[in-house]
Amino acid sequence: MPGILLTAPAVEPITLADAKAYLRVEHDDDDALIGSLTAAARLHVERLTRRAMITQVWRFVLDAWPRGGRIFVPLAPLRQLLAARSYDATGAAHALDVGAFLVDVSSAPGRIAFPPWAMSPPGRGTAGIELDVLPTADGHLVVMHDGSVARTTDGHGRVGTLDLAEIQALRAVHNGVTTDERVPALADVLAWLPADLACLVEIKSRGTAELLLAELRRARPAGRLGVCSFLASELRLIRERAPEVPLILNLPWYRFLQLERLTTRAAELGAAGIFLFPGCVTPELVAHAHQLNLEVHAGPANSTGAVRKLLDAGVDAIESDDPAVALEALKTAV
Fold first, then answer.
1. Using an 8 Å Cβ cutoff, are 193 and 172 in contact?
2. Omega before 300 within 30 of 0, i.e. cis
3. How far from 101 is each of 119, 165, 222, CA to CA, in Å?
4. pTM for this one?
5. Greatest CA span in the chain, whole angstroms?
6. Cα separation, 6 vs 294, whole angstroms
7. Distance CA 200, CA 212 (A)
8. 290-294 contacts at long range (C-beta below 8 A, 24 or more positions apart)
9. pLDDT per residue as tens digits for the range 249-269
10. Domain ranges of the chain
């Protein structure tokens, strides 16, 4: 369930004066640094505990109403539901009566209940996209799934052995047909990213986290951006350098006997959630993740049956290579 921070905390848990007194700093030269470190420490604690230390306003986005009539808010403590909106097929927002929702502020995570039969299915498309990125020989990140360019372009060679200019000179191949499309650089995609669109960037090779952090510092994307990977070491670096970025730990299908333990490991890492292949998803594993305040992402789900099975299991996000099929399943899921 993608979240967008609308109103950041007005103050920090400790004042600048208290922090300086604890550090025994009597001059004002490092006030900005101490203030930024205090904010970073709060973000780190909030990410690890899934609890907001200071009042803040968030917007959470769903592709469809949960079938069970309950929305679990991933950040505690929940205080109040300020507004609710549903989008039609044209993208127009329609305000919903917040009185139709029952807000449970005593549970952690907080829950928002609603009558699913009374809610019209949303008509807007997906809430986000996922991008696979790989580094080029000259230190840029391009949006590419395969380590080789041979399958999806008219070129040959490994991505890591080619410069950005060489890769962008290639033309994309789709279903055996060469097109005029080019391989995009991540920087170009982040510049385009709308403010209301969530984007999950997957790190596929070691050493990519440093390049991604530099790209995020330059681009400061308007949309809500998270990072996922099978590589815990890369996610750990992102957590240390940018604790405000949500992390998703991808769990390998071939370790299906260890998935519960790996889910616990994701919580210890400070991740916001886990990613599972559809065949690994069970209601019991989803419940275990939710007990640890972890979101469960699953995919790819490219058929109506696959999407509905994941919805029945209670996952929070579904990834699909065929959005039209997935959206049709979501519209009929309530």
1. no
2. yes
3. 11, 53, 30
4. 0.70
5. 68
6. 21
7. 12
8. 290/72, 290/109, 290/314, 292/263, 292/264, 292/266, 292/267, 293/50, 293/74, 293/76, 293/108, 293/109, 293/267, 294/263, 294/266, 294/267
9. 999 877 777 888 889 889 888
10. 3-49, 61-118
